[in-house]
Write a structure and sequence with these properties.
The complex is a heterodimer of chains A (341) and B (408). Chain A is mainly beta and 341 residues long. Chain A has a six-stranded mixed β-sheet with strand order 14-13-18-17-16-15, with no helix packed on it. Chain A has a five-stranded antiparallel β-sheet with strand order 1-4-3-2-27, with no helix packed on it. Chain A has a four-stranded antiparallel β-sheet with strand order 5-6-7-8. The longest helix of chain A has 27 residues. Chain B has two domains: 180 residues, MFS general substrate transporter like domains (Growth Hormone, Chain: A); 186 residues, Growth Hormone, Chain: A, CATH 1.20.1250.20. Chain B is 78% helix and 0% strand. The chains are: A mainly beta (341), B mainly alpha (408).
């Protein structure tokens, strides 16, 4: 082979290998990026107005039987009273972040966060945003994972990046342990009292917290990812089967007055912080074996079977009627514009 | 006697080029291969810890294997290459093994044993190719131009090592979080290197370059071994490895994962800036203080990462500067220290011995640090590493200080 043909062979090989590398990279990097659009499908949604995620894009039900998918990317999302919270995924060269938007999806505040987005809630008034990230590990089923739960008060701008610094009262006594993890926060209507999960020494507990005082105290064992009902009397939550997260979780409700629990009609394992769509209906995401998500509902009474709400949807939250939500959202933005400290 | 340019036949005009075409071709192979190798090295910690969710202890074991196997298999590779008279096939086997190992890394798909195997194959390939490659350079160059030939080759090699993490960064920017893509691209690049080797490097017939046969027994009986082996082992213990350091910097500085490969690039940058000034300093102030000072900057980096909380870019910057200074002050420093302590006829074996001791200790420290991280958490593990490194440095100072020269 003379030099010329060698150069040709090498060039051809280089082109071929470059094509292979680029094709592989592009196939891994490219995600279906639908522009804002409507898709029609087998939407049931019961005629509710809902916000949710479609393949990580913020979406809204758009009756009849279709959904509006926005280009806004979130790993987790939640909306209440004109506050839309979104945990941005970690980009190639950007850290993850909590983005707080108004009802028109205009950014009001951005908080850089490190970790894998897991739970996200906005208090009923739209004021408190609470989230949970995985720092080590990805799953509550493993041992040795580590979470960081934080809260942003959008009115005062107070940012608590880790609730682990709160004073803990466990079984009536002050408690400190470096293995403490907190996750799954839900705020009450007063924007101060909250509930969450605390794990320490292999046990997982429901805690009630006081945000202003910076305290949490344990209430009951084996309650994870609580979600407060609209009337504030009950919690929906997941609990590990026989206390062993490796066996999966069941959904139940807990009466805060009596601390009595009652199982819900869903018998599949649910690893999600449930959501009250209204006083009688609890929604949650199920991840199917092929990795896609479905959102289901089950009656809060414990009677009745689960029903499919939305296909290919996660992070569902109810949103109030459009006119009202736009106005309160707007006023909210005007009166407490961007409260940066 | 040697190839003058790429296009002219062998034995032609002597003055046509400063360096033989074969050397340039080998340099190109090394450059391309180093791009491939360094892209993987730059993301391997992330791939294992973030991508595959390995615990720190498992990562430490694989990292120790990666570095330990490099040195130990180089000895084996050199031996194997000496047994076989033909250089190009052995080099080809070496480069080919490393290329295929990249696919092995993907095929292992999260199995620690599979990844260990792929890494061993990769390092074995490196061990196998180094000796025949250097022999080919020697045989393609008249003795009076050897220095320049090796200089050109090593420069191309270093350029590849510098570019590798940048390519990894570009791939990660195109496909966020897709470490698979980086490894696949690395495989393609490695294959290109193999093609250049196949097409443009010629095997040179000629006398076997005389390699000093390892004479371990003779060396180990000498007085130098009593100081060099403990010193190299202690210095190996003092380091916990780049991967761990960069992972901790990423965590402490809250760095987006995509920037991870840049930590290696920035460290190389600091190294390049400081290598010459620190070399001059070593000539003036003595090698031992500069080497030990270099290790102390590493201790400082551990303390910095262990004691600070929060801290964004400045922390990453400070850690990288300390880390780069460490490399600039110590790279080749131990070898330079070892040189005078070794009998002239046993230099190669002696240096191999020093490297092996260091690699073995590194394997220990990597595994131990991984376990410490897993059991105690990062802060305690870092403080422990700092304490160990200070003790190791004190030990090294005592062992190496006394008579500076055994044989003048």
């Amino acid at each position: 082979m003379n030099t010329r043909s060698r150069v040709i062979v090498l060039t051809a090989t280089a082109v071929l290998l470059a094509a292979l590398a680029v094709a592989y990279t592009v196939s891994r990097g490219a995600e279906p990026a639908p522009a804002e659009g409507r898709t029609s499908g087998d939407e049931t949604a019961d005629g509710r107005r809902l916000q949710f995620l479609t393949n990580g894009r913020l979406s809204y039900t758009s009756p009849p039987r279709s959904r509006r998918v926005t280009p806004v990317e979130c790993d987790r999302a939640y909306a209440a009273a004109g506050t839309v919270a979104c945990l941005r995924p970690v980009g190639a060269l950007s850290a993850g972040a909590l983005v707080v938007m108004d009802a028109g999806l205009h950014q009001r505040r951005r908080v850089p966060l490190t970790g894998f987005p897991n739970r996200l809630r906005v208090s009923p008034s739209g004021r408190m945003v609470a989230w949970t990230l995985f720092i080590d590990g990805h799953s509550y089923a493993t041992t040795g994972f580590s979470t960081r739960a934080g809260v942003l008060d959008t009115r005062t701008g107070r940012l608590v990046t880790s609730l682990e610094d709160f004073a803990i009262t466990k079984d009536g006594a002050p408690y400190r342990n470096r293995d403490v993890n907190l996750w799954g926060i839900t705020f009450a209507a007063d924007d101060n009292r909250f509930y969450a999960t605390l794990s320490t020494g292999g046990g997982r507990y429901l805690v009630q917290g006081d945000f202003a005082a910076g305290t949490v105290r344990t209430l009951a064992p084996n309650v994870e990812c609580p979600s407060l009902s609209p009337d504030g009397t009950h919690l929906a939550f997941k609990s590990a089967i026989a206390g062993d997260p490796k066996r999966g979780w069941r959904l139940s409700t807990l009466d805060l007055a009596t601390l009595k629990t009652a199982p819900l009609g869903e018998t599949r394992s649910v690893d999600d912080q449930p959501v009250w769509l209204d006083a009688h209906t609890i929604a949650y995401t199920l991840q199917l074996s092929d990795g896609t998500n479905q959102t289901w509902t089950v009656p809060a009474s414990g009677l009745g079977k689960p029903q499919l709400l939305l296909n290919n949807a996660s992070s569902v939250s109810p949103i109030p009627a459009p006119v009202q939500s736009a106005r309160t959202g707007g006023q909210h933005r005007q009166s407490q514009a961007d409260p940066r400290p | 006697m040697y190839l003058s340019t790429l296009t002219r036949p062998a034995g032609g005009r002597r003055r046509a080029g400063p360096v033989a075409a074969n050397v340039v071709a080998l340099g190109a192979v090394s450059l391309i291969t180093d791009v491939s190798a360094e892209m993987v090295t730059a993301i391997l910690p992330l791939y294992l810890v973030v991508g595959l969710q390995f615990g720190p202890a498992a990562y430490g074991a694989i990292d120790g294997l990666y570095t330990g196997a490099t040195v130990l298999l180089r000895l084996a590779g050199g031996y194997a290459a000496d047994r076989v008279d033909r250089r190009k096939p052995v080099a080809l086997l070496g480069y080919g093994a490393s290329a295929v190992a990249k696919l092995g890394l993907l095929a292992a798909a999260g199995s620690a044993a599979g990844i260990g195997l792929a890494i061993t194959a990769d390092r074995a390939g490196k061990g196998l190719r180094t000796a025949p490659r250097d022999a080919l350079i020697t045989l393609s160059t008249p003795p009076d131009r050897l220095g320049r030939a090796f200089g050109v080759h090593r420069t191309m090699d270093a350029a590849g090592a510098f570019a590798g993490p940048l390519v990894a960064l570009a791939v990660l920017a195109a496909a966020p979080g897709s470490y698979d893509s980086v490894i696949m691209t690395s495989f393609c690049v490695a294959l290109l290197g193999v093609m250049v080797l196949v097409l443009f490097v010629r095997d040179r017939p000629g006398p076997k370059p005389s390699r000093e046969a390892p004479r371990w027994r003779e060396l180990l009986r000498g007085p130098a071994a009593r100081r060099l082996v403990p010193a190299s082992f202690l210095l190996g213990l003092a380091t916990i490895g780049d991967g761990f350091t960069y992972l901790l910097v990423t965590e402490r500085a809250d760095l987006a994962l995509g920037w991870f490969p840049l930590l290696a690039v920035a460290t190389s940058g600091v190294y390049l800036l400081l290598a010459t000034p620190l070399g001059l300093l070593a000539d003036r102030a003595g090698r031992l203080p500069v080497v030990l000072g270099g290790y102390l900057t590493l201790t400082a980096a551990y303390l910095l990462l262990g004691l600070t909380s929060g801290g964004g870019l400045w922390l990453a910057g400070a850690a990288v500067v300390l880390h780069g200074t460490f490399y600039a002050a110590t790279d080749g420093g131990l070898m330079a220290l070892a040189g005078p302590l070794l009998p002239a006829g046993l230099r190669t074996t002696g240096i191999a011995l020093v490297q092996s001791g260091q690699a073995l200790a590194y394997l220990f420290s990597s595994v131990l640090f991984g376990v410490a991280w897993q059991v105690w958490g990062t802060r305690s593990a870092l403080l422990a590493a700092a304490v160990v490194s200070v003790i190791a440095l004190a030990g090294t100072a005592v062992v190496l200080r006394t008579p500076e020269r055994a044989t003048p």
